[in-house]
Amino acid sequence: MGRMRRIWQPEIYYHVTMRGNNRQNIFLNEGDVSLFFRALQRTYKKSKFTIVAYCIMNNHYHLLIRSTETPLSDVMLSINKTYSEYFKRKYNYFGQLYETRFFSSMVSDPIGLLNVSSYIHQNPLTTSKAMASRMEYYPYSSFAFYFYDKKSDYPFVNTELLPSLIAKYPEIKEENYVAYCENFRTRQDLHFSYEMNFN
Known about the structure:
alpha+beta
């Protein structure tokens, strides 16, 4: 019996995580990250999607992504298959690159988007051995675009939505999105939880 198709809601953002098989590294250097973005671009040409936060670590990656026209499963299949092909060709690698299918969780409200994106951007600082001393110093996440108020060259990266949410909620004390991310780990919001979708 085949696997059940994941639920896809076009208006909803999803926190997507993909990890290397046996937790092995799937990004060995800057060139591999460039290959991953080539895979994103190639998929985007066929199936439009929007990413508002991302972080690429050594053995996994995080995306906060929405696909309004194509089922997210199809988008992720294309991204992961394309990158796997690039990686195997580059390193003459045989075997399974990824641990399993991607994990995903729906993020259905604005505060959830702020919290999950903050969690994603904090990833390089919260590993057992920090990969950067500050979020904006880590080169493989979207946080620097927010910190330096710069637009990404990639059309699928949207850095306007998250900052726009801060002003809409008077209970949010931070003056801007960067401050929200920087304060996130000391806030009670740190304890938020969500269920990963393994289907």
